[in-house]
Specification:
Layout: H1 15-23, H2 28-50
C-alpha cells in the first residue's frame, strides 16, 4: 500500500506511487476523485479564511459568571 506521507509532496506524485496504487486496483476514476476532493477541500479552506468563517459550529460563546 502506498505511504500516505507522500501527500505532502505539494501535488507531485511519482511513478512509483502511481504504480503502487494501480497494483492494488485503484482506478483512474478513483485517482481523479481523490484529486478533485483534495482540490475542493483546499478551495473551501481558502474561502473560509477569506470569509473569516467561525470555526466553531454552533458558535460557542464563553460562559460568564454574573
Amino acid at each position: 500500500m502506498p505511504d500516505p506521507s507522500h501527500a505532502i509532496a505539494r501535488g507531485q506524485i511519482g511513478e512509483t506511487q502511481l504504480k503502487a496504487a494501480r497494483a492494488v486496483d485503484v482506478t483512474g476514476a478513483e485517482i481523479a476523485e481523490v484529486a478533485g476532493n483534495l482540490a475542493l477541500n483546499i478551495l473551501t479552506n481558502y474561502f473560509n479564511v477569506l470569509a473569516d468563517t467561525d470555526t466553531e459550529w454552533p458558535v460557542v460563546t464563553p460562559h460568564t459568571d454574573a
